[in-house]
Design brief:
alpha+beta; eight-stranded mixed β-sheet; 387 residues; five-stranded antiparallel β-sheet
Length: 387
């Protein structure tokens, strides 16, 4: 008995050592599982991840109010990459909003489209549609320039007669490496030609070209491999939709990155204008940003409640990938070295599976019929999913 009592401290010490070893083994086994749980939580908080706002391709639909979305702005860009015109309403066809990007500026040497990615001050060229119902040409496209440029304004017919087109040079215009867009070099009967005036402003030899009648078909997307929708001189698709909530969210992210990655102090005060992103239809009312990311099919009209066949269906077919163009200030023509592209690359990259290295803002759409859209119209959501 005395011997067993003497051995008791040794037995207790050995048992404690065994218990400690067991606990260490258990902890080592649990560490990987704890890491996975924390990693998953970090991805799900706020619906964000390193690869973009969504964090996955299954966004939380419950945060959006789909019953209260309205059109707040309509923007027409008559000449590609030039100043936008805000209008109270616009007719649309399969090719897009009337007169949106019906014209473009092309290099005289190779007929390639020139954009503000190449010449930032293009955004200061001001094209305006001057309708004239009494004229067989439907009115004029009037083009003016900043006063300090020394370039005079000119105008060309909206819908030139066939006889006039026979005297205009016919071109195969190149955009994104494809030279399959039919166009005509615009002419005027008064003063210098549009080509001369634009070449002086741009600092290189260019023409103003109007889209011809030959259809230009949009590129297919993953969801629409057989897409056959037509377009004018848009980068890819006849319509682009963006929400005010998305722009406001990006502005907050810009302010949160002031002092980082070349984002200057002025961005703690400056406004990120929706015009930088060059949408056609701007909406508001979903209650949270990036609703357009999950809006796949909708109609738009003046009725508060959805009515069958009140307006054609609009389908969003892809996210709009972004380049340096939104960095150009639409009112000064000055290109910012960081905003918003660097912020977009941090928060909105990897959302387009076809181009995962690019950032996205807004969504591209196609139209299924002719109609009219007005500021104040209601958006009627028909389908949601992954755009």
């Amino acid at each position: 008995m005395i011997k067993h009592m003497a051995d008791l401290p040794t037995i207790l010490e050995q048992g404690l050592a065994t218990l400690q070893t067991s606990w260490i083994s258990i902890i080592l086994l649990l560490v990987p599982f704890a890491y996975l749980v924390l990693l998953q939580r970090s991805k799900s908080v706020g619906g964000r991840s390193d690869k973009g706002e969504a964090g996955s391709h299954a966004p939380d639909y419950s945060k959006f109010d789909t019953s209260n979305i309205r059109v707040t702005k309509i923007l027409i860009h008559p000449i590609k990459s030039c100043k936008a015109t805000s209008v109270p309403e616009a007719k649309y066809t399969l090719e897009g909003l009337d007169n949106d990007r019906r014209w473009c500026i092309v290099r005289a040497d190779n007929n390639a489209v020139v954009t503000a990615r190449d010449v930032a001050k293009m955004v200061l060229i001001n094209p305006r549609i001057i309708p004239d119902p009494s004229s067989s040409e439907g009115g004029r496209l009037e083009v003016s320039f900043p006063k300090e440029s020394g370039c005079e304004a000119f105008s060309v017919p909206l819908n030139p007669a066939e006889e006039a087109l026979q005297d205009w040079q016919n071109l195969d215009i190149s955009l994104w490496g494809k030279d399959d867009i039919e166009g005509y070099v615009c002419q005027t009967d008064i003063g210098r030609s549009p080509s001369e005036i634009l070449s002086q402003y741009m600092g290189l030899s260019v023409h103003l070209a109007m889209k011809g009648s030959r259809l230009r078909i949009c590129p297919p997307t993953q969801r629409f491999p057989d897409l056959d929708a037509p377009s004018y001189f848009q980068d890819g698709y006849p319509l682009m939709l963006l929400s005010e909530e998305s722009v406001a969210a990006m502005q907050e992210r810009v302010r949160g990155m002031v002092g980082m990655q070349g984002i200057e102090e002025q961005w703690s005060r400056d406004t990120l204008q929706v015009e930088r992103f060059r949408p056609n239809i701007v909406v508001k009312g979903a209650g949270a940003p990036f609703f357009e990311d999950i809006l796949t099919e909708f109609t738009v009209d003046s009725h508060r409640e959805s009515l069958d066949k009140a307006s054609p269906i609009i389908q969003l077919v892809s996210k709009c990938t972004r380049c340096m163009l939104p960095n150009v200030h639409p009112e000064t023509g000055v290109r910012d070295k960081a905003v918003p592209l660097k912020v977009l690359m941090k928060h909105r990259r990897g959302l387009d599976p076809a181009q995962p290295s690019l950032s996205c803002m807004g969504c591209n759409g196609i139209l299924t019929g002719n109609g009219v859209v007005k500021v104040g119209d209601w958006i009627h959501v028909r389908k949601t999913g992954f755009v």
